[in-house]
Specification:
452 residues; alpha+beta; six-stranded mixed beta sheet; five-stranded mixed beta sheet; 43% helix; binds 2-deoxy-2-fluoro-alpha-D-galactopyranose; Ribsml_uS5_D2-typ_fold_subgr; ATP-binding; galactokinase activity; transferase; galactose metabolism
């Protein structure tokens, strides 16, 4: 009989040591340090970060580790333990969008992007170079933000190493860089977003980089992408005997392909047709439905989505720049915007309302999944089977995480039912003849940091 395959619980200290040792084996010297950054589990709010919607990411215990050493000849070398035969070397000043391929675009792209900054504090000195060894525990193409984990760990590494270059040269560090502030991390997130958009060629929004650099240990954030402001949310599921079931369906997605960009383009076109800064501004300011029952809130949400989507679609029909007018994509955007803000409110009620609030949260997750499957159309059979099996196994809710077309599924489930649900998914996959899924143990993650 088929059993669920659980990944190892990640051991942070062991991974720091592993990447350090690999660096020494490769380069023959101690690195100057080790840095790391997490992937993220986005609890809710997909394909709306680039529209000024709010999303709810939480840092994962799965991270990308970078051991690095300064060079002063302008050369950047990197190797990844996941791609041992693909060592890369580039002259930092020669990095340009469109000239590199594969995983290294996430590394070199960050160096390039730092040098696009206007203020000098983040740009790299002319002689700056580095040797890097990279190791990642974030499933690649799994919707858990493996790309941002590389970008953000690289950004911290390059920034810190460039500080030592400035200090070695006797230059005082600008005051903006002497402290690891929220402001600095917000700027680094923008650097990483530009790297991904321009050099890696994926038209993603800012969700992943914000989560990786700016999360609060062990907590979720509500990020308002109109101004990138953050609200921490304590999602205390263990006190309610609940757990996250996170499944890597082993059906990797590829966001540099056209499907993601097409959805972004079309929904941004709605923003233009409505003459707004952000599509989020087409909805009322307050989407929480505070004080309304679950049924009342849902009724309000669905009628608001209908009404605003109709307005947006008629504006788009008249707006010559909108070549596609995909009804479901617009509806999904409004729908998920409403769901996130209701979810944040429902979580704030869990102390008072107990299990009923958690149950509503679960149903909000599933409602979002249905919208991703039927309106946004980013699901696939393997994902549907995983979600349906989790729900049949008693999950309060289940959904795709991240950009879709494959990747990860998460469910909120009673801790007592976790193992059985995982087994049920593993068996359903075997019955369908799908590749075996992997189950990822969850524990609280922490944001990007210097480890050693
Ligand atoms: C990917 C992107 F990188 C994010 O910006 C976000 O749009 C997400 O897909 C979908 O919510 O992770």
């Amino acid at each position: 009989t088929v059993e669920a395959q659980w990944a190892h619980q990640p051991d942070h200290a062991a991974h720091v040591e592993r990447v350090r040792t690999a660096f020494i084996e490769k380069y023959g010297v101690e690195p100057d340090g080790v840095w790391s950054a997490p992937g993220r589990l986005n609890l809710l709010g997909e394909y709306i970060d680039f529209l000024g919607g709010s999303c709810m990411p939480m840092p994962l215990p799965y991270r990308t580790y970078v051991a690095g050493k300064l060079r002063t000849d302008g050369v950047l070398r990197a190797q990844s333990l996941q791609m041992p035969h693909d060592e890369r070397t580039v002259v930092v000043r020669d990095i340009r969008p469109g000239t590199l391929k594969g995983w290294f675009t996430y590394v070199a792209g960050v160096a390039w992007s730092m040098n696009q900054e206007e203020s000098e504090d983040i740009t790299l000195p002319a002689s700056f170079g580095a040797d890097l060894m990279i190791d990642s525990t974030v499933p690649v193409g799994g919707g858990l933000s493996s790309s941002a984990a590389i970008e953000c760990s690289t950004a911290l590494t390059l920034l810190d190493l460039s500080h030592s270059l400035r200090e070695n040269a006797g230059a005082a560090l600008p005051s903006t860089l002497t402290e690891d502030t929220h402001d600095l991390r917000a700027r680094l997130a923008q650097v990483c977003i530009r790297a991904e958009n321009k050099v890696a060629g994926a038209q993603t929004g800012g969700l992943d980089q914000t989560a990786s650099l700016r999360s609060i240990p062990g907590q979720a954030l509500v990020v308002d992408f109109r101004d990138f402001s953050l609200q921490p949310v304590d999602v205390n599921i263990q006190d309610a005997n609940l757990s996250w079931l996170v499944i890597n369906t082993n059906t990797p997605h590829e966001l540099a392909g056209g499907e993601f960009a097409a959805r972004r383009r079309a929904t941004e076109c709605a923003t233009g047709a409505l003459n707004l800064d952000y599509l989020r501004n087409a909805l009322p300011d307050d989407l929480r439905c505070a004080g309304l029952s679950e049924a009342e809130a849902k009724h309000w949400r669905l009628s608001t989505v209908d009404e605003r989507a109709n307005t947006a679609l008629s504006a788009m029909e008249k707006f010559t720049r909108c070549t596609e007018v995909p009804r479901g994509w617009i509806r999904h955007a409004f729908h998920d915007m409403c769901l996130v803000e209701r979810a944040a409110y429902v979580i704030s009620r869990t102390g008072a309302d107990g299990i009923q609030a958690w149950e509503e949260l679960g149903r909000l997750f599933t409602e979002s999944f249905v919208s991703m499957r039927d309106e946004l159309q980013v699901s696939r059979e393997e994902i549907n089977v995983a979600v349906d099996t989790c729900l049949d196994a008693g999950a309060l809710g289940a959904r795709i995480v991240g950009g879709g077309f494959g990747g990860a599924v998460m469910a909120l489930i009673e801790t007592d039912k976790l193992e059985d649900a995982a087994t049920a998914v593993a068996r359903a996959y075997a019955q369908h003849g799908y590749a075996a899924p992997e189950f990822l143990p969850m524990s609280p993650g922490i944001p990007a940091q210097k480890d050693a």
